[in-house]
Design goal:
This protein folds into two domains: 3-19 and 231-438, Enolpyruvate transferase domain (UDP-n-acetylglucosamine1-carboxyvinyl-transferase, Chain); 22-218, Enolpyruvate transferase domain (UDP-n-acetylglucosamine1-carboxyvinyl-transferase, Chain, Alpha-beta prism). It contains 16 helices and 23 strands. The chain has helices spanning 22-31, 48-59, 85-88, 96-105, 124-132, 163-173, 189-200, 232-245, 260-268, 306-313, 332-339, 369-381, 392-397, 401-406, 417-423, 428-438, and strands spanning 2-7, 13-17, 39-42, 63-67, 70-74, 107-111, 136-140, 143-147, 155-157, 179-183, 205-206, 212-216, 225-227, 248-252, 272-276, 279-283, 293-294, 319-323, 343-347, 350-354, 363-365, 385-389, 411-416. The protein has a four-stranded mixed beta sheet with strand order 21-22-1-23. Helix 8 (232-245) runs parallel beside helix 10. The longest helix has 14 residues, at 232-245. The relative contact order is 0.16. The model is unreliable at 434-440 and 442-452 (pLDDT under 50). Bound molecules: ligand EPZ. Ligand EPZ binds next to helix 1, helix 5, helix 6 and helix 12.
Length: 452
């Protein structure tokens, strides 16, 4: 299992290009199956979640070619049942297959998606939407099956603002008879991206980006070419890392509007942020001011940037209070930050951060994707060397983050454990043994295989 080794205290400087949005990509790939002929999806990030989803579509029988961010999908699938846990457990967003297969075939059965390290991941609102459209739901032995002879459009009022449920109901309603109205819908940029994709296939979705989305079902959806939006979470991660290190970076291929909540918060902390077309410049001179943050659905402060900005606030002047309203246990990165000298107290969904002079490098472990981003940010500002293990989580959602950071002057190396042990003269057998016994990740997932 690889590690990152970071020597801190180097301000990030230069230009970096943001990749396509992970959370838009993992919805667009299954949505491509809605069409009756070939779909081309561009600007996909080269990350493990995308590789895994391509594997799943191939398992289902689709013809999938993926090369350099462009995926061509010929949706002639033969398998819509018994999508096994082994396959779907690798990716949280496998639940989008339910909405897609229900719309196209009136039937789908996949293993229930597991939870993850930020809290339970219920899908009761997805199920509420499918049932409103006329689907029958069976949950048995860890599998969920959704079936409907015919889907009829209906009004659906979401009990909670849910990105996944909003997208999944849009997918299912895209071919239902009549009008579906989703109220209390999520408004994230990837919701709008999905609506644009369905409309490009000949669908009829209106109101995405507001809390009322109207979907008029159509008989057929045809192939098209869709370009996924830039990743606002990746962009925000680089903005935070630049601010934390006292750097000066131009971040390219962004939609500044999508970054408004993080821009506003960084300016409040004393950072200079300049927008110019599809790029944003961040200039910072630490120490920064402590700020309070409350995560909320878009356009509130994004929960996915709560962990990285926590790392930045560990050395801000004063006391910062972070309230995580979306996930019940999204503070697993705090213990690791405290090993680096951070002064943070977590009480329920609130973290109280007392700014300290300096963090010190230490061996730490990523517990989930954005916790990994937080530890990278902390390593970049710490005195000395930080080793981050379990970085497969990070590779799920950030394309070549080490290469991009190196391009900004960071002292970061990706170390393969086997090579490292090899260098220390251990035999292959000893390495295998060492890796099995000593190396514990919370959830060692075998990433998908990149292929073209
Ligand atoms: C998406 O997860 C993202 N993942 C998450 O990003 C992100 O944190 C989250 O939206 C919020 O923005 C993908 O898009 C693949 P939700 P999702 O449904 O759709 C509750 C990352 O780091 N809820 O908007 O699963 C739920 O418990 C990941 O990129 C229900 O109660 O999130 C949570 O409290 C992590 N019932 C809240 O709603 C449901 O049926 C928001 O969840 C569904 C959700």
């Amino acid at each position: 299992m690889d590690k990152f080794k970071i020597k801190g205290k180097k301000p990030l400087e230069g230009r970096v290009k943001v990749s396509g949005a992970k959370n838009a990509a993992v919805a667009a790939i299954p949505a491509g199956l809605l069409a009756d002929d070939e779909v081309i999806i561009e600007n996909l990030p080269m990350i493990n979640d995308v590789f895994v989803y391509g594997d799943i579509l191939k398992y289902m029988g689709a013809e999938v070619l993926f090369n350099n961010g462009v995926m061509k999908i010929k949706p002639n699938i033969h398998t819509i049942h018994h999508l096994p846990y082994e396959l779907v457990k690798k990716i949280r967003a496998s639940y989008y297959l339910l909405g897609v297969l229900l719309a196209k075939y009136g039937d789908a059965e996949i293993a229930l998606p597991g939870g993850c390290n930020i809290g339970t991941r219920p899908i009761d609102q997805h199920i509420k939407g499918f049932q409103a459209l006329g689907a029958k739901i069976e949950i048995d032995q860890g599998m969920i099956r959704v079936r409907a002879k015919e889907l009829i459009g209906a009004p659906i009022y979401l009990d909670v603002v849910s990105v996944g449920a909003t997208i999944n109901i849009m997918l299912a309603a895209s071919k239902a008879k009549g009008l579906t109205v989703i109220e209390n819908a999520a408004k994230e940029p990837h919701i709008v991206d999905m609506a644009n994709f369905i409309n490009a296939m000949g669908g009829n979705v209106k109101g995405a980006g507001t809390d009322v989305i109207k979907i008029r079902g159509v008989e057929k959806l045809h192939g098209c070419t869709h370009t996924v939006i830039p990743d606002q979470v990746e962009a925000g991660t680089f903005m935070i890392a630049t601010a934390a290190t006292g750097g000066d970076v131009i971040i390219e291929n962004v939609i500044p509007k999508h970054l408004d909540p993080i821009t506003a918060k960084l300016i409040e902390a004393g950072v200079i942020v300049e927008e110019n077309g599809d790029l944003i410049r961040v200039i910072s001179e630490p120490p920064l001011n402590a700020v309070n943050i409350k995560t909320l659905p878009y356009p509130g402060f994004p929960t996915d940037l709560q962990q990285p900005i926590t790392a930045l606030l560990t050395t801000a002047k004063g006391t910062s209070i972070i309230t995580e309203t979306i996930w019940e246990s999204r503070f697993k990165h705090v213990d690791e930050l405290k090993r680096m000298g951070a002064d943070i107290n977590v009480e329920g969904r609130t973290a109280i951060i007392q700014g300290v002079e300096e963090l010190s490098g230490a061996p730490v472990k990523a517990t989930d994707l954005r916790a990994g981003a937080a530890l990278i940010t902390a390593g970049l500002i710490a005195q000395g060397e930080t080793e981050i293990s379990c970085i497969h989580y990070i590779d799920r959602g950030y394309e070549q983050i080490d290469k991009k950071l190196k391009g900004l002057g960071a002292n970061i190396e990706r170390i393969s454990e086997a090579d490292q042990k090899q260098k220390e003269g251990k035999t292959r057998g000893e390495i295998a043994n060492w890796t099995k016994q000593e190396y514990v990740c919370l959830e060692a997932e075998a990433p998908g295989t990149p292929y073209s």
